[in-house]
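Q: I have 322 residues here and want to know how they pack in 3D. Can you give me a structure?
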Amino acid sequence: MKLAGLKTVQNAHGESIWAVTWVPATESSPPLLLSGSVDESVKIWRGDELEEEACNTGHSLGVVAVAAHPAGSIAASTSLDSFVRVFDVHSNSTISILDSPPSEAWNMHFHPKGDLLAVAGGGSASVKLWNTATWRTDISLAIPRGEGTIGKSSDKSGGKFVLAVAWSSDGRRLACSTMDGTISVFDVARGKFLYNLEGHYMPVRSLVFSPTNSRILYTASDDTHIHCYDVENKSLIYAMSGHTNWVLSIDFSPDGQAIASGSSDRTVRLWDLSMRASVQTMTNHTDQVWGVAFRPPGDQGGRAGRLASVSDDKSISLYDFT
């Protein structure tokens, strides 16, 4: 497996780019790339040439996350203004505005079936689940007070600030990560906190379940390590190292055989999971890399895969993945 650079768009936004995701292809539309920036905008990009198709300026502060519905028709963005904006990808029209208290809307992901949107709740120490049929809060999953990993105080400043969320591929479990390195796992159907996973000692800003094994979870931390957990056995399987600074983002390849990571060390790394090691380092960016995203499968009749990365250097890079 390897990455090869295809295209880099310099000054893709006016400020740092903090978020990136792919909108799946539909019968009438190819896959699209979404990017969110500190300049308060969300942009939609088309094709390997990364042609700008639309620009959304619905937020009043920097955009911290973007997420796409699995049906490929709608997407959402969260911002430092504490609003979640849900919009139609093709018309760019607003579908709903979801209001949150200050500092309680961060990373987010749609359920694999698309019926729920999970939003990391920041200082609320919880994850909000929004019903995508009504755009009302179905349930709030809270990390129980006093639940911390060994040797950690759950009430220390910033300890349970929820940064990121991830759904298991079967949609049964939801994992969230916090500023103190805690990974909390929930049974969504029962609305029940299950347990915490130990191992990190600094913020975990990104986590992702395997697309082929719903019990395998990977996490990326400011401690420079990437961890692999078996959430069924509540165990740390192994850790990988290679980045020299915070690991800010992580994503799985659609075939489940590789992950990509972005870091404050300004690099994107490709990891072969059969080797449990980094096999390639890309140096396209000149500042920290806040987001990496593999293009979802099922488009263009099996064409080569794509990976996108975004950075504080205001650029978007696109790579061929084979």
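Q: Anything worth noting?
A: DSSP finds no helices and 28 strands in the chain. The radius of gyration is 18 Å.
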